[in-house]
Structure formats: C-alpha cells, structure tokens
Amino acid sequence: xxxxxxxxxxxxxxxxxxxxxxxxxxxxxxxPVAHVRNEFDFTVHASYQVTAxxxxxxxxxxWAGGHWDPHFLYPQPAQDTQGAVFTIQHGHRRAYWLNTAFxxxxxxxxxxxxxxxxxxxxxxxxxxxTDPADTKVNVTYERTALNPDANQHVLExxxxxxxxxxxxxxxxxxxxEKQKAVGR
Length: 184
Known about the structure:
Oligomer: single chain
Structural class: alpha+beta
Radius of gyration: 17 Å
C-alpha cells in the first residue's frame, strides 16, 4: 500500500507542476497550449513474457539505442517496477519520468514524464498475445505543451509519434533476432 501512496503523490506532484507551469506561462504569454494524442500498433514476434520486459526503462536499453539512457532516482539499484522514478536527457533539457503502471498481469504499462517549461507526456502501453509466438503492442502518446512557446515542439513530437510503430517494431524484432542467433 505504501508504493501506491508514493505513486499517487508523485503523479499528483508531476501533474501539479505541469499545471503550474502551463498556468504561469499562459498568463505571461498569449494563446492556448497545444495538446496531441497519437497511437500506434505493431507486433513483436515473441511471447508476452519475452516482450513485456522490453518496455521497462532498463529493458528498453538493448533495443532503443544510445539516446535511451535512464538514470534512476528510485529504486536503487535500478529496477523496472511500478513507481520507478528516473530522468532522461532530451537534448539540453532533462525529463523527469514516473512509471505509473507496470502491471504484468493486466498487460498494461504507463509512464508520465515532464520536461519543465516544455511539455507533459503520458505514454500508455498495452499488450495482447495474439498467439504464443506474437504479441500485439498498442502505444498511446498524449502530449501537452506547458506554455504556448512549446506548441511547435509538441506538434512536431506528435507528428513523430505517429510513425514510431514501425521503427519500434523493427528495433525490437531485430534485437530479438540477434538474441536468437547468439543463443544458437
């Protein structure tokens, strides 16, 4: 029960921070903030038990490329778990991430991250095992600018999100093929 309270507190703090920045900058700048929602599907050619761990912050490292380098604040040592808090460098800015759902039984993972003064993002990942050798992955991104000056960034990120399904599917399936080849 303590981890649930920690998650609720952390999500509340992230949302409060995002709303504070959005309100503060909206008052200082004119115009509304951008909000985009995109989703994509792809198939991983592996069972759910093999696929799902690849969507944790640590599990993503081998297939996501060098730009994915989470630095864990909690837990220590780093572990893919609900309630994990970590940072990722986005260019010259730092994003603060919180894993709000890491539920293997319900086949649902979710992350919330904030880049201060820029945007708040929710990433929702759901899995469906179509057969023992294939897992369908559905990913939904919701991005909200925290001030009107960040609108273009949010819109560009949203456009990029639409095309990530093929890229993610190719990267994960390529990684799994290499693992099979090494294991032979």
